[in-house]
Structure formats: C-alpha cells, structure tokens
Amino acid sequence: MRLVFAGTPAAAIPTLRALATSHEIAAVITRPDAPLGRKRVLTPSPVAGAADELGLPIIKTARLDDGATDRIAALRPELGVIVAYGGLVREPLLSTPEHGWINLHFSLLPRWRGAAPVQRALIAGDAELGASVFQLVPALDAGDVFAMRTSRVPDDATADAVLDALAEDGARLTADVVEGIENGTAVAHAQVGEPSAAAKLTLADGALDWSRPLDEVYARFRGVTPEPGARTTVDGLQVKILEASRSDSGDLEPGELRATRSALLIGTGTDALAVTRIQPAGRQAMRATDWWRGLRGGEAMRAGA
Prior knowledge:
Elements: E1 2-7, H1 13-20, E2 24-30, E3 34-36, E4 41-43, H2 46-54, E5 58-60, H3 66-73, E6 79-83, E7 101-105, E8 113-114, H4 117-123, E9 128-135, E10 145-152, H5 159-183, E11 197-198, H6 214-224, E12 230-234, E13 237-246, E14 257-259, E15 264-266, E16 273-280, E17 286-287, H7 288-293, E18 303-304
Parallel strand pairs: 1-2, 1-6, 2-5, 6-7, 8-11
Antiparallel strand pairs: 3-4, 7-9, 9-10, 12-13, 12-18, 13-16, 14-15, 15-16, 16-17
Helix pairs in contact: 1-2, 1-5, 4-6
C-alpha cells in the first residue's frame, strides 16, 4: 500500500521500519527539530533520523494544518498510520487517505486514552498493559479497534522499558492490520468498557508521597521514570531518584532515611524503598549511599514531598 506515516519519538520507529519493508512510504510526518541539551542544539526527532536512514521523504510540521493537509493530499496516500506524532489529525486530513488513518496506541483501549498511557497504567498498578491499533476518529482515541495485544509487565520495569517492549509488539500488530486492510480482511470492533484518561505527566506527578504504602510509591516511581522523574526533598534539597527497588525493611517511619552498604532506604507507609542511584539538583547522577554519607548531619534528615 501507499502510506503516509506520522510519528515523533523513538517508540514510533519500530512501526516505521516494519512498514517500510513491505509498503511504499510516500512521506514521514514528524515534529520539527527541537533544542536539546544544555547548549539547546536543534536536533531532529528520532523518527526523522530513522526516516533519513531509510531514505524516506520527510515532512516536518508542528501542526497538521491546511498547508500540511495539502502536501499530504498531493501524495495520494491509501492509508495514514500514526504512532505518537504529538498532534491531532482533523478533517479534511482525516478523510484524505482512501482508508483513513489508523493509530497504534500503547494501552488496552478504552483504558488510558490520552498522551501517557504506559505511565498512567504503571502508576495505577495495572498488572497487564498492551497495545491497540484502531481507526482514527475525531474523538480522542475513541475509534473502533482492529487488533489488540496484551502483555504481562515485569514488576520492576519502569516506563521506558515497558514502552520499548510495547513498541516492538505494536509494530508487528500494526503491520498485520495494514496487511488486513490491504487484502480486505481487517475488521474493527467498537471499544468495550469504561474509558479512562491518561493525561500528560507534569513535574508534580513525580513527587513521591512517603506516607503512602510501598506498593503505591514504587508504582509511581516506575511510572514517572525516566520522565518527568521521581522526586523528593531531603532537608529542602531537591533530589531525583533514578534507580530504586522494593525492600522488606518495615521499621522506618515515612520519610525516614537509613543507609546500608548497597542502598539508601527511605521509609514509606509500609516497607522502605531501596534507592540506589540519585541525581541531586544541579549535580551529576551518583550512588545514593555516596551522596548520603557526604551530607553533614545526614542522620537527622528526612525525605519529604
């Protein structure tokens, strides 16, 4: 089939590569170059880099406006495929391809419609995550579903690792759906169940509440890692928690800290969280125990929101 593909982050690359092996990609649509790093160097999106490697035409646009619609329509695509592009597809672009647009979404729809499905599912403690391929419609993530795949989530996986795995599974799922649309066998069904919203994460979502049970604290840590990052304060100092795991130490009060040989334990409402790597504000990442032992009067300090 003659396709247009829209995507921006690295999670969209496996699907682009899978489709490029069997179909004609008339153009890859992605967000414009963005300033990255301390020097704010303009850098192409991960999808733009992959498209360049594949020798595919690239359309860089922040909005799928009239100008972008005219450029895409001139390509006469049979189908549009979108994976985490970062913008809305509206009419008349929605109906421009012969078969419309399909969307790979990293959730078991209708659960977690929105920008951060993997992160919100982990924060909520969902044991099962997955990917869905659905027909794009004007309402957010509400179209009929062609295919869905469920995955069991390792209980120590953070959002980045889960998203990487779902991106690979989703690429195969999307390729199967495109093949079905091409040969006329694809059938989509209405979503079943109560929708839930997966709003984009903010810095505030990364704040850990040590009064909550360990299961909830650890679930939030997993969901916000690596971005926007799990955060706490220690005696007014902002600290980002980069690596952590469960412990069975239940004798610490919420927010109380204690260093062991391998980790910095922080008490929760139940057992302690074992923190192994942190990044204090304005400093490089380091071992949590090294940072803790370098603090004067550390034993009297506590972690807080």
